[in-house]
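User: Modeling request: complex.
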Amino acid sequence: MMVDFNSVDFLPWLVPVGPLLAFLIISLATNRAKPEPASSLVYGGFRPPYGDLGVPVATSWSRILSITVGISGVVMSLLVSWRLVFTATATKDFGEVVFGSSVDWLSLGSLPAFQMGVLVDPLNSAMLFMVPLAVLCIFIYSIGYMAHDPRQSRFFALISLFAGAMLTLVVADNLLLLFVGWEVMGLCSYLLIGFWYEKDTAYKAAIKAFTTTRVADVLMLLGIAYLYAETGTLSFREILYNPAVLEALAGKEALLFGGFGLSAAGLIGIFLVIGTIGKSAQFPLHLWLPDAMQGPTPVSAMIHAAAMVSAGIYAILRMYPVFAAGGDPHHGIFTAPLLLMAVVGAFTALFAATMAVAQNDVKAVLAYSTISQLGFMMAALGIGAYIAAAFHLITHAFFKALLFMASGSVIHAMEHGEHHAHEHHAPAHGIGGGADPHDAHSHDAHAEHGHDAHHDAHDSHAFDPQDMRNMGGLDKKIPVTYWTFLAGGLSLAGFPLITAGFWSKDEILADAWLGTTEGFGPHALVFVMLAVAAFMTAFYTMRQIGLTFKGEARTEPAQHAGLGGQYDIISQTMQLPLIILTPFALFAGFVGVPKDFPIFGSIFASEHNPFKYFVIESLHPVLHFEAPAFNWFPVLVSFAVALGGIYLGYRMYWVKPLKAGEEDPMIKILGGDLYTTLQRRYYMDELYVLLFVQPSQWISRQVNEFVDKGIIDSVLHGIARFFTWVGDLTKVLNAWLIDGVGDGIPRWIFQAGGWLRGAQTGKVQQYLLVVLIAAVVIGVIFALTAGAVTAQ
Amino acid sequence: MGEFNVWTSLPAVAPEIGLTILAAVVLLLDAYLPKEKNRARNIAFVSAVSMAVLALTPFIWAPAPNTSELFWGGMVRHDALGQLFDVMILLAGAITVMIAVDDSGVGRRGEFHLIVIIVTLGGCILSSSADLVMIFVALETVSIPLYVLAAFRREDNKSSESGLKYFLFGSFASAILLYGFSFLYGLTGSTQLTAIAAGLNSEIVSGNLVAVLAALLMVIVGFGFKISAVPFHFWTPDVYEGAPTPVTAFVSVASKAGSFAVFMRFLIEAFGLPAVSADATSTLVVIDGQTIQTFWVNLLTVFSILSMTVGNVLALRQKNFKRLLAYSSIAQAGYTLMGLAALQAQSAIGQDIAMASITFYMFMYTFTNLVIFAGIILFVEATGRENIADFAGLQRRSPWLALAMTIGLLSLAGIPPAAGFFGKLFLFQAAVEANLVGLAMIGVLNAIVALYYYLIIIKIMYVDQGIDEDKPLAMPRSYAWVLGITSVVIIILGVIPTPIFDLAQQGAAAVRLAMGS
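Assistant: Request completed. Predicted assembly structure:
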């Protein structure tokens, strides 16, 4: 590797450097925060409920420093990444030619040295375009969102590390470095979800996210180790761009379950897919993600859009040839990992969409929608729609980042409104008790729908700024948020032709339909389930927008909602990223328009589908496949599900907006039981507590009882008893000696004490004696072994 | 060896010459510098900077690549391994002088720095000696000044006692070592190590297996004392605790690194390595049909297991930080012995990794241990207490000091990204290459045990509430530099270990080829 800042082969090293340096500088330089008792002055009345705790409050210079350093780090990444991306798009045959370099990192004895390096190829160029942009938006947004938080510099340090880890993962040229980024992100997500760790729910959510992903990561590590054992390398290019290696992997019987016809590639693939199931929150390891909402909203945007969950799908895209080795989904030959992905993905997409329909928390809807959309990508990968999945990953990141930040802005506005309302009505509120209709309403709701852990945190507040039932009519209060939210929402719903979400979803459905026409079962399954899920997506998005923004304000805080003055730094930094992301959420789809799509094809893809043409080169030419020919049926289905869902939601929540004190019409339609079941996530949390948490607690208790208290303590007690016994014996002997022999003995003991006091030198002789004895013993052993052998 | 040419021979002892001149200069400074406040401090800076600069000489007058030549009548070798050991001993000397500056007992007296320079000189000779006489002279050049240093705080009984103990134990070990040397000379009529190997392999010695084994045993006992391997470790905790802290720091790294270097050379050169391929000659010493190597590798395997286990288990119960580090250093010696046991590997790569892993381990251990000792000196100087519990809340009192010590402790525990991770990894790898998987497993288990007492200290520094938390600790600038540089070196070695390890591996290959194996 040559250090040359003009060489595109060296530049990838610099991509993650900015945020990582920012993390170091912020965490090392701003450690002088002074603990101060928390007061509403410090927080400006905003979240979180720190109570009376003393909190180290960042001084204003450390706030400014952390913001400046954090943003500069990301800007540096953005510039380097985009330079690489634009050079890449201008490079002929990019894909055959890649940018990257590596160093001998670790000599491994008789094996060749492990190479550590970076790589930019078409697939991660797409990521390098999206990730730094989304991250920069999130950083700008955080300035406003965290402006009143006492631990703001800590937040910027952690989120910088998060971004650095994500970028490391993206530019890695081997699975080990990818895994390093993966794990660092796991750590950051733990620290950031639990950022407000004074809140009980927040730290529980953090632990849940960490342990759940850990389970998956261990299996993924097994997969990596197995791959390394089989191939002797973890470099992407050496494994994935090399059909011979893939063939060997596919032809070899797996270590486990080999008898069932599983190949080594299959087993490795399954392990890696499980890692992704954890990271990208797919069924059955999806439970951590809705809870991850406990973190500050920019973190949710980071986890759900730009980084964490995309990393899971990215890893699969990266390793795709291994999953497909030995199979060909385009001709109906599925390998075990592909089938696993198709089934898990399709199921999760639908399953999460049903839960999203019944959520009342504005962020929870988006959380389930993320799970569902990731399911789309998983399913697409399972049926071989590699390009479609990559495309959806990028478009989804844009509109989901937009939606999360917009919902954070909604929450912020509501908190602002609540603060405002309190200032005006504090005495009345205090005396009147349940005078506020929303108070009674939300308590009723809790009584009716059971005790939802997610709403726990706000019980103390009695008012939940995230509950959509408390909102309404916000479109007039925060118009910028409304219009951007609408743009993002329509994109998520797949509004035909003009939104990015439509094009990427349509491509997945087109691929699935093609397989279905040829009679492949998995394709048909994916097609049906995804079509239904897409319908529900459109519906719950409209429901969310209707509940949040339409009609009249249902509560007092909603009436006073707002982001502060027009020229306020908070409102500006929180709205700017929304405006930046909106065009991407709407129009990013045009880079992936199929060539033979009527009208649009001729405008945006006169020669070929540009996104496909570019990204497909990440795969070895042997694995290239043709895009499905244009077919009216899937396009019509896309139109129908998107417009149908949008229309239904429009009818139910826009035309007749919810009024204060009214019940969600969903409850009547679905019936109370089903609605509650959906809202409580099919009781999976309770099931997991019963299946995993309680047994492990039981085991810990037993270990504590029997091993610790029983065995270890009894041994210790035994020893103690022995020494007490020796002590007693000595006492008896002493008494006997003193009694028996008389006065001579005390003098002797006194002398012995003196001798012992001076025995420090005596001890050396004792030491030396031990050495001599050891030497003699060894000598004897030597002589005996030597003699014994000689005698033979 | 060829004709003696003083100019080609000089580079082999370049650092030693530099150190001798430096010693004379410091002696003069100490004698004639006017008595003012900063006198000792200035002497210390001169010594430290000079030693750090001298640490470059092994690179300027580097040995010819892939050779391990004999110079000065077969007295010293000039090769990459010796070069690396010279560098680490010189840097250890420089850092010791720097961290002793503010120690009220030792650093403020000029002669302290002079003695450190002389020990460093001895260590440099030791790491490349190739002759029994040279080894013994170098060993004593290291030991005798260290006895003086251990007892340097004359007014302090503990220091005097520790000096006396160290002296008694050391002279006893030297005597045994010398006795072993005399056996070898008597049997072979030579003091040069490779000549001894040749002599042992000839007809003269046949029938004298037991005598050779006795000599081997005595040599191992002698070196075992120096590297504080169990069961010759008894002096370590007492001396570590009693001696002035900068001296303890120096004993724990410089003397140990030099001794490991010469121990490794002695075993390889006098008793040989197995042949690595069909056309290479085995240099192993075989007497009466018995390979001597079998005896010492088995013995060292046992010592390795004993040292690791005893060191770690006893360290668990320590309350005094310096005593804990004493037991930890015994355990670390145990890990390093694993590398010596791995010299029995039958492959070229295996033997190279065994030698290189010892070198790398000592290299990273030098920085790691010194950063922790620097922290202790700073802390003890400010508070006068050295129990582990006294470090509670250190993070609030001095965040940078706590961070530096954390890096050091993580490195000792072998956790990435600190250098100790690769140190252990390479040693375990060497053991595995030599088919000593069981030994490597015991090493891994021991590393887990050790994790406990290292992490406890980090926990105490960061989590526990101390009584003096509101009193910040001042950090003098010289310490800030030393702590900063050593911590950064530890991290760099832990992220990019390859350059040093590759150099060590080349040096190892050169030694192996020079043996003809």
